[in-house]
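Marked as duplicate of an earlier ticket. Keeping the data here for the record.
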Amino acid sequence: MATTHCDACAQPLTDAGPYCPGCGRARAGATQQWGAPPPPPVATATGASAPSIPPPAPYSPAPMSDVLPPAPPAPSWAHAQPHAQMYSVPQQPYGGYAAVMMSSKSRVAYILLGLFLGGLGIHNFYVGRVGPAVAQLLLIVFLGWTGVVALAVMIWIIIEVCTVTTDSQGRRLRA
């Protein structure tokens, strides 16, 4: 066996490995190959050797079939609308029920305004429905002297008071 000495620490080297057992440096002429074992631990100033850290394992990503659930089948109308595959309907929170936003406006106040000042459209102004409010106001002011228009507006107001439950922004009127 041929004995040589390390260039860095002058320790005697044997043909046993590519690293110096004293300082852990690669031997002269030895080449580092991918996957080669790490050098032996280097002695510290106190004489104890530092623990060696094993090299990380080569990265291998997990197969995506284990991570993601299977995709649902495309709907029958997807071939006619290619953009439909890109967009999906968001899932509703709370077990499939959408959260209900409550308005600061009161339904009781809406009903009372509709019964007493409905001809002027005040109840619709109250909840932010400006279009129907202006239409009721103009019909009563300009054509209210005719009985037919006034009767039609009053029927319209009664239907609104019974059916409208949201304000102009779609929030439910509170009780």
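See parent ticket for discussion. The first strand starts at residue 4 and ends at 5.
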